[in-house]
Give the backbone structure.
Amino acid sequence: MSLNTIMNFARTGLATAQAGLRTTSNNIANVNTPGYARERIIQESIVSGTQAGGVRVAGIERIVDEFLVRSKREATSKFAFHEVANQFHSRIQALLGRPDENNSLTGRMTEVFSAFSRVALTPQSNVQKESVLTSIDRFGDEIGSLAKEVQRLRHDASNKMADRINNINALTKRIFDLNPLIVKETVTQGAPRALEEQRAQAIDELSKLINIETRKTSNGSLHVSSSGVDLVGFVRSVVKYSAPGTVTSGTKFPPITVHEVNRLTGLIGPPMQTMNSKLVSGEIAGLLHLRDNNLPEIARELANLASEFINQINEVHNLNTAAAGAVTLTGKNTGLRASDAHHFTGKTTFAVTDASGNLTQKVEIDFATIGSTVGDVIAAVNAGIGGAATLSMNAGVLKFTGTGANNYVSISEKEASLSNRAGKGFSHYFGMNDLVQSRNGGQVNTGFTASEAHNFTAGGTIEFNITDSYGLTRENHTITISGTSFNDILTSLNSSPLGSKMNFSLDSNGAFVAVPIPAGAKYNLEVVSDTTSRSPSLVNISTLFSIGSKYKTESAFDVKVKDGIKQNSNLLGLARFNHSASIGESAIAVGDQTGAAALQNIENTVVNFKKAGGIVSMTATVHQYAAALLADIGTRSKLNEDYSNDLKALKGELTQKVEDYSGVNLDEELGNIIIYQNAYSASARLITTAKELYDELLRLV
């Protein structure tokens, strides 16, 4: 072996040992850097022909187990999904309060029935009457506050989505910008490890926001996608979402779209596809699920409770009458015309009493023996009441008015012959003596049949939108009013593009039904715009049939005592009309508590609740349904918390495994320093020895 060969061995050994020392020093310096993966040099022999030529550094690699890293990122993404949901559920739980607290939802409901109980004992007490009205308003404030908070939470979720999407674009741009730098260092046999470390940390941050997949190319570039949607590759994509300024139950959220960025101009292209259905984990998927599924379901549950609570109270109150009497009973706009079929069965009594409650005049209407229209009912009442009062209809609103200053009117029924149209009595259907009202508390069961004349002005339009569970539009179509019957409108809907996703009909109660195709598909029908008008009430189709999410959710808003009764508590119906009274006899007794007792008994009345949100259809009292609602919200919160805790533990375990494999061990690194120092010293000793041999040869010359 020549002295030059020895010198070359020593020189390459020194360089390799120095590289090892630099790499080890870098590892030690980053011992506390989160996510840092330790590095090591790869040594290889230098071979010239068949002769060894020393050693060299073939490369410096990051110690990473790709399977563990991928598993950790997946766990991180799933944990982030449930963790962000957990934050929102905690806010809802805080608002609900403890069930045994007076200001909780169930506490306010208990307060209403307690007030009914007290006023039943002393029906003449103005204090107790005011207590009833106040307790109803307090319940309305509580359930309305919860319903509004649900919409505020949806708004917050939407805004947070917009913020997180900005973070996605910042991270994907960073990854895209790092790729060519890493490729350059890799191709030129440079040192790309620091750049790779920065890129890996950016990918870790990205995995918290959305579910991602990565693919590394041979030149060191990294492609990033999410459920097949390319975010970083040969070109970069940006994600866009415009959060609406306000959010209501009927808000149509814009989709999350993906746009390609032109590499030369930097201009953002048109949307290539939507991402809503692609997001399965990460914070944005969690926020999306909250906004479009979880929170709307809770809103529908609250509305279902409010709707049935109002319905039960109004049903009883329309059978009651005020002891002091009312000069006028005014209903709500039902959309009916005088020419419409009344469709009532049973009997209803219309009566007039004086200031003392003595009967002045009355007429019992048997709906089976009079004409078939609403106009026929009005005519029969006016003919039978003998001019003591007048029943009239104006723009869909029915009014019963006494004709004299001391003529007080009432509408009542006998238990043996209750009237009925689509499950409601005459007074209840028209809202003649309602006690409670709410926003958009329209008729779901209208009582119409498909063959009846629709009487909507021809040329009016209604635009429908069918969305899926991700909030994406599946079908959008505008129907123009034509034909003469409701059946013509239904035929127009079913034969339109909307008919490919839903089948439209009226059920036996006259409710508008839209059944998804295929059965079980999670489609929602929304009304975008409605210019239809039913003369003379001017009610449109969506209002008449309560179509769209606002009618499914907003009955929990503005729940309060009807204005006229709130202004005069003596109009609170606590008595029942005495049907056996003859003219001149007492028909409404002062101190009668029969009606008040009926209101109190609502607390124990079992009714049929429709499916809403996560609560299946059930037969229960309003109190039991309220308990089921609270239980459902609690279950959602607990399940989410459990998932979050489980995934947090899994994420921690995988993170520890990644650190065990890739992290810096100071003892190991200090040992490596000694090894490289010894290697360096040995190589230096070779140089010293070679120098001494050279010097000896020179002395011999």
About this structure: The longest strand covers residues 51-62. Residues 82 and 544 are 40 Å apart (CA to CA). The mean pLDDT is 90. The longest helix spans residues 126-187.
